[in-house]
Amino acid sequence: MINPFFNNHGPFQIDKILELVDINNKDLNYKGHIKDIRDLVTADANCITFFHSKKYKELVKHTKASFCITTKSLENDLPKTCMPISVENVLIATAKVTEKFYPEAVIDNFDNNTQYIDKTNFKEIVSYGKNVLIGSNVKIGKNCNIGNNSIIEKNVQIGDNCYIGSNSIIRNSLIKNNVSILDNCVIGKKGFGFFPDKFSNIKYPHIGLVIIEENSEIGCGATIDRGSMSNTVIGKNTYLDNQIHIAHNVKIGNNSIIAGQVGIAGSTTIGNNVKIGGQAGISGHLKIGNNVEIAGGSGVIKNIPDNSKVMGYPAKNIREFLRENK
Protein backbone atom coordinates (compact mmCIF):
# COMPACT_ATOMS: atom_id res chain seq x y z
CA MET A 1 0.00 0.00 0.00
CA ILE A 2 1.38 3.38 -1.01
CA ASN A 3 0.78 6.21 1.47
CA PRO A 4 -2.65 7.66 0.63
CA PHE A 5 -1.88 10.81 2.62
CA PHE A 6 0.82 12.45 0.46
CA ASN A 7 -0.16 14.02 -2.84
CA ASN A 8 1.68 12.78 -5.91
CA HIS A 9 2.59 15.87 -7.99
CA GLY A 10 3.31 13.78 -11.10
CA PRO A 11 3.21 12.71 -13.79
CA PHE A 12 6.38 14.23 -15.24
CA GLN A 13 8.06 13.93 -18.59
CA ILE A 14 11.24 11.89 -18.49
CA ASP A 15 13.23 14.99 -19.53
CA LYS A 16 12.32 16.67 -16.23
CA ILE A 17 13.54 13.63 -14.31
CA LEU A 18 16.81 13.55 -16.21
CA GLU A 19 17.44 17.21 -15.48
CA LEU A 20 17.14 16.52 -11.76
CA VAL A 21 19.90 13.92 -11.91
CA ASP A 22 22.12 15.98 -14.24
CA ILE A 23 21.53 13.92 -17.37
CA ASN A 24 20.50 16.30 -20.13
CA ASN A 25 21.19 14.60 -23.45
CA LYS A 26 20.24 10.97 -23.01
CA ASP A 27 17.94 9.69 -25.75
CA LEU A 28 15.74 7.07 -24.13
CA ASN A 29 13.30 6.92 -27.03
CA TYR A 30 10.42 7.33 -24.62
CA LYS A 31 7.64 9.82 -25.25
CA GLY A 32 5.36 9.14 -22.28
CA HIS A 33 5.21 10.45 -18.73
CA ILE A 34 6.51 8.97 -15.50
CA LYS A 35 3.57 8.65 -13.11
CA ASP A 36 5.33 7.77 -9.84
CA ILE A 37 8.48 6.64 -8.06
CA ARG A 38 8.22 3.34 -6.16
CA ASP A 39 10.39 0.55 -4.83
CA LEU A 40 11.37 -2.44 -6.96
CA VAL A 41 8.46 -4.57 -5.76
CA THR A 42 5.54 -2.14 -6.03
CA ALA A 43 6.62 -0.27 -9.18
CA ASP A 44 4.63 -0.92 -12.33
CA ALA A 45 4.63 0.36 -15.92
CA ASN A 46 5.37 4.09 -16.32
CA CYS A 47 7.00 4.19 -12.86
CA ILE A 48 10.61 4.86 -11.97
CA THR A 49 12.45 2.87 -9.28
CA PHE A 50 16.01 2.55 -7.97
CA PHE A 51 18.61 -0.21 -7.65
CA HIS A 52 21.79 0.53 -5.72
CA SER A 53 23.06 -2.77 -4.34
CA LYS A 54 23.63 -6.35 -5.51
CA LYS A 55 21.72 -7.35 -2.38
CA TYR A 56 18.52 -6.64 -4.34
CA LYS A 57 19.56 -8.49 -7.49
CA GLU A 58 16.74 -11.03 -7.23
CA LEU A 59 14.10 -8.35 -6.71
CA VAL A 60 15.24 -6.26 -9.65
CA LYS A 61 14.77 -9.21 -12.01
CA HIS A 62 11.02 -9.01 -11.48
CA THR A 63 10.45 -5.28 -11.33
CA LYS A 64 7.80 -3.89 -13.67
CA ALA A 65 9.14 -0.34 -13.58
CA SER A 66 9.78 1.39 -16.89
CA PHE A 67 12.89 3.17 -15.59
CA CYS A 68 15.46 2.51 -12.88
CA ILE A 69 17.99 4.85 -11.29
CA THR A 70 21.14 2.77 -10.95
CA THR A 71 24.87 2.70 -11.70
CA LYS A 72 26.81 1.57 -14.76
CA SER A 73 28.03 -1.49 -12.88
CA LEU A 74 24.49 -2.61 -12.03
CA GLU A 75 22.48 -1.69 -15.12
CA ASN A 76 23.06 -5.07 -16.81
CA ASP A 77 21.04 -6.73 -14.03
CA LEU A 78 17.87 -4.89 -15.05
CA PRO A 79 15.20 -6.68 -17.09
CA LYS A 80 14.98 -5.58 -20.72
CA THR A 81 11.65 -3.86 -20.05
CA CYS A 82 13.31 -1.47 -17.58
CA MET A 83 15.51 1.31 -18.96
CA PRO A 84 18.52 2.29 -16.83
CA ILE A 85 19.26 5.85 -15.76
CA SER A 86 22.88 5.56 -14.67
CA VAL A 87 24.19 8.05 -12.10
CA GLU A 88 27.15 8.30 -9.75
CA ASN A 89 25.13 8.31 -6.52
CA VAL A 90 21.88 6.38 -6.74
CA LEU A 91 20.53 7.35 -3.32
CA ILE A 92 21.04 11.10 -3.77
CA ALA A 93 19.45 10.97 -7.23
CA THR A 94 16.53 8.95 -5.84
CA ALA A 95 16.01 11.47 -3.04
CA LYS A 96 15.82 14.33 -5.57
CA VAL A 97 13.35 12.49 -7.78
CA THR A 98 11.17 11.45 -4.83
CA GLU A 99 11.04 15.06 -3.64
CA LYS A 100 9.90 16.07 -7.13
CA PHE A 101 6.89 13.75 -6.84
CA TYR A 102 6.24 14.27 -3.10
CA PRO A 103 7.61 17.65 -1.95
CA GLU A 104 5.47 17.72 1.21
CA ALA A 105 7.07 14.50 2.47
CA VAL A 106 10.48 16.10 3.10
CA ILE A 107 9.40 18.36 5.95
CA ASP A 108 8.00 16.78 9.09
CA ASN A 109 6.74 19.80 10.99
CA PHE A 110 4.06 19.52 13.65
CA ASP A 111 0.45 19.68 12.51
CA ASN A 112 -0.63 23.29 13.02
CA ASN A 113 -4.27 22.43 12.26
CA THR A 114 -4.87 20.42 15.40
CA GLN A 115 -7.74 21.29 17.72
CA TYR A 116 -8.86 20.13 21.14
CA ILE A 117 -10.86 16.94 20.90
CA ASP A 118 -13.83 18.49 22.68
CA LYS A 119 -14.13 20.87 19.70
CA THR A 120 -14.51 17.93 17.30
CA ASN A 121 -17.10 15.25 16.60
CA PHE A 122 -14.85 12.68 18.27
CA LYS A 123 -15.92 13.93 21.70
CA GLU A 124 -19.09 11.85 21.34
CA ILE A 125 -17.37 8.54 20.56
CA VAL A 126 -13.95 8.63 22.28
CA SER A 127 -13.03 8.51 25.97
CA TYR A 128 -10.21 10.98 26.49
CA GLY A 129 -8.11 12.78 29.08
CA LYS A 130 -7.01 16.40 29.31
CA ASN A 131 -5.28 18.38 26.54
CA VAL A 132 -5.92 15.85 23.77
CA LEU A 133 -5.41 17.30 20.28
CA ILE A 134 -6.73 15.96 16.97
CA GLY A 135 -5.36 16.89 13.55
CA SER A 136 -6.83 16.91 10.07
CA ASN A 137 -7.77 13.78 8.13
CA VAL A 138 -8.14 11.63 11.24
CA LYS A 139 -10.55 8.70 11.69
CA ILE A 140 -11.15 6.96 15.03
CA GLY A 141 -13.28 3.86 15.54
CA LYS A 142 -15.56 2.77 18.37
CA ASN A 143 -14.65 2.22 22.03
CA CYS A 144 -11.28 3.99 21.91
CA ASN A 145 -9.42 5.70 24.77
CA ILE A 146 -6.84 8.47 24.47
CA GLY A 147 -4.76 9.57 27.47
CA ASN A 148 -3.73 13.03 28.69
CA ASN A 149 -1.63 15.31 26.47
CA SER A 150 -1.62 12.97 23.48
CA ILE A 151 -1.72 14.33 19.94
CA ILE A 152 -3.26 12.46 17.04
CA GLU A 153 -1.81 14.53 14.21
CA LYS A 154 -2.86 14.58 10.58
CA ASN A 155 -3.29 11.48 8.45
CA VAL A 156 -4.13 8.85 11.06
CA GLN A 157 -6.72 6.08 11.03
CA ILE A 158 -7.42 4.26 14.28
CA GLY A 159 -9.64 1.17 14.42
CA ASP A 160 -12.07 -0.03 17.06
CA ASN A 161 -11.23 -0.81 20.70
CA CYS A 162 -7.85 0.92 20.66
CA TYR A 163 -6.02 2.44 23.61
CA ILE A 164 -3.63 5.38 23.20
CA GLY A 165 -1.73 6.28 26.36
CA SER A 166 -0.69 9.71 27.62
CA ASN A 167 1.94 11.98 26.03
CA SER A 168 2.04 10.07 22.73
CA ILE A 169 2.23 11.56 19.22
CA ILE A 170 0.91 9.71 16.17
CA ARG A 171 0.95 10.78 12.53
CA ASN A 172 0.85 9.12 9.08
CA SER A 173 -0.29 5.81 10.53
CA LEU A 174 -2.92 3.12 10.06
CA ILE A 175 -3.75 1.45 13.36
CA LYS A 176 -6.02 -1.57 13.15
CA ASN A 177 -8.51 -2.88 15.76
CA ASN A 178 -7.63 -3.79 19.36
CA VAL A 179 -4.23 -2.09 19.41
CA SER A 180 -2.70 -0.62 22.57
CA ILE A 181 -0.12 2.16 22.32
CA LEU A 182 1.22 3.03 25.75
CA ASP A 183 2.60 6.31 27.13
CA ASN A 184 5.25 8.53 25.52
CA CYS A 185 5.33 6.88 22.08
CA VAL A 186 6.19 8.64 18.81
CA ILE A 187 4.74 6.86 15.81
CA GLY A 188 4.78 7.83 12.15
CA LYS A 189 7.46 10.51 12.09
CA LYS A 190 9.94 10.48 9.22
CA GLY A 191 12.89 8.15 9.53
CA PHE A 192 16.59 8.96 9.78
CA GLY A 193 17.09 9.33 6.06
CA PHE A 194 19.68 11.63 4.49
CA PHE A 195 22.67 11.31 2.21
CA PRO A 196 25.89 13.36 2.44
CA ASP A 197 26.56 15.38 -0.70
CA LYS A 198 29.85 17.30 -0.52
CA PHE A 199 29.13 20.02 2.06
CA SER A 200 25.44 19.33 2.69
CA ASN A 201 23.05 16.50 3.52
CA ILE A 202 20.23 15.62 1.14
CA LYS A 203 17.10 14.71 3.12
CA TYR A 204 15.16 11.76 1.83
CA PRO A 205 11.37 12.20 1.62
CA HIS A 206 9.51 9.55 3.61
CA ILE A 207 6.35 8.72 1.69
CA GLY A 208 5.45 5.50 3.52
CA LEU A 209 3.21 4.75 6.49
CA VAL A 210 3.34 2.97 9.80
CA ILE A 211 0.84 0.11 9.81
CA ILE A 212 0.08 -1.61 13.12
CA GLU A 213 -2.01 -4.72 12.67
CA GLU A 214 -4.73 -6.09 14.96
CA ASN A 215 -4.25 -7.09 18.60
CA SER A 216 -0.76 -5.64 18.96
CA GLU A 217 0.77 -3.65 21.80
CA ILE A 218 3.42 -0.93 21.65
CA GLY A 219 5.26 -0.31 24.93
CA CYS A 220 6.06 2.99 26.63
CA GLY A 221 8.59 5.26 24.98
CA ALA A 222 8.67 3.36 21.67
CA THR A 223 9.56 5.15 18.44
CA ILE A 224 8.32 3.72 15.14
CA ASP A 225 9.40 5.58 11.99
CA ARG A 226 7.21 5.63 8.90
CA GLY A 227 8.59 4.07 5.74
CA SER A 228 10.68 5.88 3.18
CA MET A 229 9.40 4.29 -0.03
CA SER A 230 7.62 1.26 1.43
CA ASN A 231 5.74 0.97 4.73
CA THR A 232 6.85 0.13 8.25
CA VAL A 233 4.65 -2.75 9.44
CA ILE A 234 4.02 -4.30 12.85
CA GLY A 235 2.23 -7.64 12.45
CA LYS A 236 -0.83 -9.06 14.20
CA ASN A 237 -0.58 -9.99 17.88
CA THR A 238 2.97 -8.64 18.11
CA TYR A 239 4.08 -7.09 21.39
CA LEU A 240 6.81 -4.46 21.75
CA ASP A 241 8.26 -3.70 25.17
CA ASN A 242 9.34 -0.25 26.38
CA GLN A 243 11.91 2.03 24.70
CA ILE A 244 12.17 0.19 21.41
CA HIS A 245 13.16 1.86 18.14
CA ILE A 246 11.79 0.52 14.85
CA ALA A 247 13.37 2.29 11.87
CA HIS A 248 11.88 3.02 8.46
CA ASN A 249 10.68 0.20 6.20
CA VAL A 250 11.04 -2.47 8.90
CA LYS A 251 8.55 -5.33 8.59
CA ILE A 252 7.77 -7.37 11.71
CA GLY A 253 5.62 -10.48 11.32
CA ASN A 254 2.79 -11.86 13.43
CA ASN A 255 2.94 -13.20 17.01
CA SER A 256 6.38 -11.78 17.76
CA ILE A 257 7.68 -10.51 21.11
CA ILE A 258 10.42 -7.88 21.36
CA ALA A 259 11.85 -6.93 24.74
CA GLY A 260 12.95 -3.50 25.95
CA GLN A 261 15.59 -1.27 24.35
CA VAL A 262 15.85 -3.28 21.15
CA GLY A 263 16.83 -1.33 18.03
CA ILE A 264 16.01 -2.55 14.53
CA ALA A 265 17.67 -0.65 11.69
CA GLY A 266 15.97 0.29 8.43
CA SER A 267 14.56 -2.12 5.83
CA THR A 268 15.06 -5.27 7.90
CA THR A 269 12.36 -7.94 7.75
CA ILE A 270 11.47 -9.95 10.86
CA GLY A 271 9.46 -13.15 10.45
CA ASN A 272 6.55 -14.62 12.43
CA ASN A 273 6.84 -16.00 15.97
CA VAL A 274 10.16 -14.27 16.62
CA LYS A 275 11.44 -13.53 20.14
CA ILE A 276 14.09 -10.85 20.66
CA GLY A 277 15.69 -10.28 24.06
CA GLY A 278 16.33 -6.89 25.63
CA GLN A 279 19.00 -4.52 24.28
CA ALA A 280 19.61 -6.57 21.13
CA GLY A 281 20.61 -4.61 18.05
CA ILE A 282 19.71 -5.67 14.51
CA SER A 283 21.44 -4.11 11.51
CA GLY A 284 19.59 -2.86 8.45
CA HIS A 285 18.56 -4.65 5.24
CA LEU A 286 18.57 -8.08 6.89
CA LYS A 287 16.11 -10.96 6.81
CA ILE A 288 15.29 -12.68 10.09
CA GLY A 289 13.32 -15.89 9.52
CA ASN A 290 10.30 -17.37 11.27
CA ASN A 291 10.48 -18.91 14.75
CA VAL A 292 13.83 -17.26 15.48
CA GLU A 293 15.03 -16.52 19.03
CA ILE A 294 17.64 -13.78 19.56
CA ALA A 295 19.15 -13.54 23.03
CA GLY A 296 19.31 -10.26 24.89
CA GLY A 297 22.30 -8.02 24.16
CA SER A 298 23.05 -9.73 20.85
CA GLY A 299 24.29 -7.89 17.78
CA VAL A 300 22.78 -9.23 14.55
CA ILE A 301 24.75 -8.29 11.43
CA LYS A 302 23.69 -10.99 8.96
CA ASN A 303 20.57 -12.88 7.91
CA ILE A 304 19.20 -15.54 10.25
CA PRO A 305 17.38 -18.59 8.83
CA ASP A 306 14.10 -20.01 10.16
CA ASN A 307 14.02 -21.88 13.49
CA SER A 308 17.38 -20.54 14.71
CA LYS A 309 18.50 -19.54 18.21
CA VAL A 310 21.35 -17.04 18.31
CA MET A 311 23.25 -14.92 20.79
CA GLY A 312 26.43 -12.85 21.11
CA TYR A 313 28.18 -10.32 18.93
CA PRO A 314 28.21 -11.03 16.13
CA ALA A 315 25.16 -13.17 16.83
CA LYS A 316 25.74 -16.87 16.14
CA ASN A 317 24.10 -20.20 16.87
CA ILE A 318 23.53 -20.38 20.63
CA ARG A 319 25.28 -23.74 21.03
CA GLU A 320 28.33 -22.45 19.20
CA PHE A 321 28.37 -19.31 21.34
CA LEU A 322 28.15 -21.24 24.61
CA ARG A 323 30.86 -23.67 23.51
CA GLU A 324 33.22 -20.79 22.73
CA ASN A 325 32.49 -18.96 25.99
CA LYS A 326 32.74 -21.68 28.60
Description:
This protein is mainly β. It folds into two domains: 12-105, MurE/MurF, N-terminal domain (Udp-n-acetylmuramoylalanyl-d-glutamate--2,6- Diaminopimelate Ligase, Chain: A, domain 1), CATH 3.40.1390; 115-324, 3 Solenoid (UDP N-Acetylglucosamine Acyltransferase, domain 1), CATH 2.160.10. The chain contains four helices and 37 strands. The protein has an eleven-stranded mixed sheet with strand order 8-11-14-17-22-25-28-31-34-36-37. A ten-stranded mixed sheet has the order 7-9-12-15-18-23-26-29-32-35, with no helix packed on it. β19 (194-197) and β20 form a beta hairpin.
- The count of domains is 2
Assembly level? single chain
Work out the helix count.
4
Question: Any low-confidence stretches, pLDDT <50, length ≥5?
Answer: none
SS class: mainly beta
Termini gap: 49 Å
CATH fold assignment of the largest domain: UDP N-Acetylglucosamine Acyltransferase, domain 1
Task: Count all strands and give the number.
Answer: 37
Sequence-ordered SSE layout with sheet pairings:
Elements: E1 12-13, H1 14-20, E2 33-34, E3 36-37, E4 47-50, H2 57-60, E5 67-70, E6 83-86, H3 90-101, E7 115-116, E8 126-128, E9 133-134, E10 138-140, E11 144-146, E12 151-152, E13 156-158, E14 163-164, E15 169-170, E16 173-175, E17 180-181, E18 186-187, E19 194-197, E20 200-203, E21 210-212, E22 217-218, E23 223-224, E24 232-234, E25 239-240, E26 245-246, E27 251-252, E28 257-258, E29 263-264, E30 269-270, E31 275-276, E32 281-282, E33 287-288, E34 293-294, E35 299-300, E36 309-311, E37 316-317, H4 318-324
Parallel strand pairs: 3-4, 4-5, 5-6, 8-11, 9-12, 10-13, 11-14, 12-15, 13-16, 14-17, 15-18, 16-21, 17-22, 18-23, 21-24, 22-25, 23-26, 24-27, 25-28, 26-29, 27-30, 28-31, 29-32, 30-33, 31-34, 32-35, 34-36
Antiparallel strand pairs: 1-2, 7-9, 19-20, 36-37
